[in-house]
Amino acid sequence: MFSDTAEFHRWFAQRRQAHAYKVTRTPLDRLDGWSLEEGTGDLVHRTGRFFSVRGLDVRRSGRGVEAWQQPIIVQPEHGVLGILVKEFGGVPHCLLQAKMEPGNVNLVQLSPTVQATKSNYTRVHGGRPVPYLEHFVAPRGGRVLFDALQSEQASWFFAKRNRNMIVRTREDVPLHEDFCWLTFDQIAELLQTDDLVNMDTRTVLSGAAGLRRPPAPGGDAFSAALAASWQPGGRALHDTAELLSWFTEAKDRCTLERRLIPLAGTARWSLRDGVIAHDDGRHFTVLGVRVEASNREVTGWSQPMFAPSSRGVIAFLARRVEGVLHLLVQARIETGALDRIEMAPTVQCQPADHTPGVLGAPLPGPRPPFLDEVLGAAPERVRYDALQSEEGGRFHHARSRYMIVEVDEDFPLDVPPDYTWMTLRQLIDFVRHGSQLNVEARSLLTLLGFLPARPAAARAPLPASTA
User: So which domain of life are we looking at (predicted)?
Assistant: First the structure.
C-alpha cells in the first residue's frame, strides 16, 4: 500500500528496472512456432491453440464503406480479466500488477490481478502458473462483485469475449513482488497519466463504477451535473425501456453480413517485406515479434501482432440536460462483434483515415459524425484528455486519444437515429449485463466514473493526421 501516488511511481519505476525485456521485429514467414497454413495462408500456431489470423469478408455493413475484406484475429476461447479487492482499514484496495506486454509503447503498464487467456492459464505454453488465478476460478473463497462476458476490439477480433471479474476477499493475500494494492482514489489519479493503466484494467474497472461512492458535487456546473448523473433513478432524457427499444431497433436495422475467408484471399492485402499490409497503407499491418521477458510465465516467445497505421480518437460528447450530465452514445456496427451492434462512444475512429492527403490515397468513406466537434473543441470544454494504450498482448503500439468533451446546452438533443443521450448511471447499469457496451465505451466509462474532482489540464490540440 502506498501513502500517495508519488510513492507508487517510485515503486513502479523500480519494477520496470528490475526485469529484462526485449521485443524484436521478426518477419512473419520466419516467426518461430507460427506458420502460414498451406492452402489458406492463415497464420496459425503449431499447437493449434492461442489464436490465429484469418481473413474476414464484410458485406452490407451499413457504414461509410459497404463492403471490404481484412485480416482478423480469431481467438474463440475466453480469457480471464480479474481484479481482486480487499479492505484495509475499511478502505477498499485493488490488487494490480506491473505487467509487460510486447505491444505496449512503454512495455510495462498496470494490469488487472489476473490477465490471461485460457491457453495461458491452462499452461499450454508449459510455463509457470498464473498468480492469484485461484480467486477467479471455481471453487473460490471470495465474494463476486462483478462477472460478465465482455467484447474486445471488434475491428480486429472476431467474436472475441473475455470474462471480466471483480472479486472481494477477506483472506490474507500474499503480495508478489510485481503486484501492489491501490485505492480507488489512487487509481483515479493514475488514470490521468498517459499509457499507465492498461486497457484490460480499464474494462474491468467499468464494472466497479457502480460499486464506488458517487462523487460529491463540485464547485462548478460540470462536476455538479456529473454527480447528478450518477444517481440511480435520477432525471434522464430517456428511461430504460426507451433506451432498450432504441438499441433493439438499431439491431433490427442492421444488415451486416460477414464470413471468415482464407487470409491469402483477402482483397487489397498482401504479404511483403515480412508483414501483411493494405495496398493503400491505411488501417493497420500484421507484423511479427520475438519477445523476451524475464518475469513472464514463459521467458520467451514469438507471435504476430496488429499495428494500426495511425492514432485513434475515442470520445464522448457530454451535455447537461436540466442539470444532469448526459453522454451521446452510438449504436455502432462492429464488424467482428458477436452481436454485430454494440453501444459505443460518440466518436471512434482513426482520423488520418478520413483526412484528405494524409496517407496519400483515396478516402475510404465519409468523415465520421461529430469528429469535427471533438477535434475542434475549445480547451475549456475538454473535461478529460489522455493518450491510452489499447490491448498490448495483440496490438503493437496501438494508442488512442481518449476524450470527454462538453458541448453547450444549445447543442441539439435531436440526434441521428443511431445515437441517443444517456446518463452515466444508465451506462453503468448496462455494462453489468455484458456485451452491451464495446471496450472503447467501457474504457471511457471508467475514465469518466473515476474522474477526480479537479478538472484535468487541457492537452494541446493535435494535428488531424496524428490526433
Answer: Bacteria
**Alpha carbon separation from 105 to 33, 135, 275, 387, 395 (Å, rounded):** 24, 30, 19, 11, 10
Return d(Cα 110, Cα 180) in angstroms, integer: 10
User: Tens-digit pLDDT profile for the chain (467 aa)?
Assistant: 899 999 999 999 999 999 999 999 999 999 999 999 999 999 999 988 889 999 999 999 988 889 999 999 999 888 999 999 999 999 999 999 999 999 999 999 999 999 988 766 666 555 688 999 999 998 888 999 999 999 999 999 999 999 999 999 999 999 999 999 999 999 999 999 999 999 999 999 999 976 777 666 667 899 899 989 988 877 999 999 999 999 999 999 999 999 999 999 999 999 999 999 999 888 999 999 999 999 888 889 999 999 999 999 999 999 999 999 999 999 999 999 999 999 999 999 999 888 776 555 555 678 899 999 999 999 999 999 999 999 999 999 999 999 999 999 999 999 999 999 999 999 999 999 888 999 999 999 999 988 865 444 444 444 443 44
| H-assigned helices in 298-431 | 371-375, 424-431
The one-letter amino acid at 208:
A
**Residue 373: phi, psi to the nearest 5?**
-65, -35
pTM for the whole thing? 0.93
Cell 520496470 found at:
16
Beta-carbon count within 10 A of 209 CB: 23
Residue 240 has a CB neighbour count (10 Å cut-off) of 12
353 burial type by CB count under 10 A (0-12 exposed, 13-18 middle, 19+ buried)? buried
Distance between CA atoms of residues 144 and 201, nearest Å? 17
3-state secondary structure of 175: coil
Alpha-carbon span 179 to 203, nearest angstrom: 19
CA nearest 381: which of 408, 354, 355, 350? 408
Q: Which three cell numbers stand for residue 384?
A: 478529460
d(CA 217, CA 141): 37
N-to-C CA span, the chain: 36
Place of cell 464547485: 219
What is the C-alpha to C-alpha distance for residues 325 and 222, in angstroms, rounded to an integer?
Answer: 8
- Contact present, 269 and 259 (Cβ < 8 Å): no
The angle at the Cα of 105, spanning 273 to 120, to the nearest 5 degrees, equals: 85
Q: Give residue limits of the domains in the chain.
A: 221-256+310-449
